[in-house]
Design brief:
Elements: H1 3-16, E1 21-23, H2 26-34, E2 40-45, E3 48-53, H3 59-68, H4 73-87, E4 92-93, H5 106-118, E5 125-129, E6 135-139, H6 145-161
Antiparallel strand pairs: 1-3, 2-3, 4-6, 5-6
Helix pairs in contact: 4-5
């Protein structure tokens, strides 16, 4: 098996498990596509390049997986929240960071939330709670606090009370 085929197999296997593979650059993707591996794609996160297979994951999930692998937990949380607030727009459930692909331990997450609140670089990341106690994060750069609170309430309570 050639290096390119080996690379493609590793990327596909990792993607099937919900992970991305760090890679050096776009040349390997071009070589892989020239050999028929057209499902391979690249994303860039924090100055690094990652490969994934579009057969096994979406670009949005690949971006989450890349952030989840970051050593900078605050950056991973903040960029995910900013992305959700800007793209959808919606607040991000705090509990999402304990699930795949992040899998942060509850203690690690609580520490990160305190650090986010105290760090000027992340002053746009705000916490809001629904009436059932569910906690959400949102970016005040993309969502107004009242809108984020309303969406959090709908996501946690309202949608389950409406047929």
């Amino acid at each position: 098996m050639s290096d390119i085929e080996n690379f493609a197999v590793r990327v596909r296997e990792a993607s099937s498990r919900g992970a991305v593979i760090p890679c050096e650059g776009e040349e390997i993707l071009e070589l892989a596509r020239a050999r028929g591996f057209n499902d391979l794609a690249l994303i860039h996160e924090e100055g690094r390049t990652y490969a994934y297979s579009e057969q096994h994951m979406t670009r949005a999930y690949a971006e989450l997986a890349a952030r989840a692998g970051s050593e900078d937990v605050l950056h991973a949380i903040a960029e995910t929240v900013r992305s959700d607030s800007a793209t959808y727009p919606r607040p991000t459930p705090v509990s999402a960071f304990c699930a795949k692909p992040f899998r942060f331990a509850p203690e690690q997450l609580e520490t990160a939330l305190l650090q986010l609140a105290a760090h000027p670089k992340y002053e746009d990341i705000q916490l809001v709670s629904a009436s059932d106690g569910s906690r959400y994060l949102f970016s005040s750069n993309h969502l107004a606090a009242a809108h984020a609170a309303s969406l959090a309430e709908w996501l946690s309570v309202g949608r389950f009370q409406n047929p």
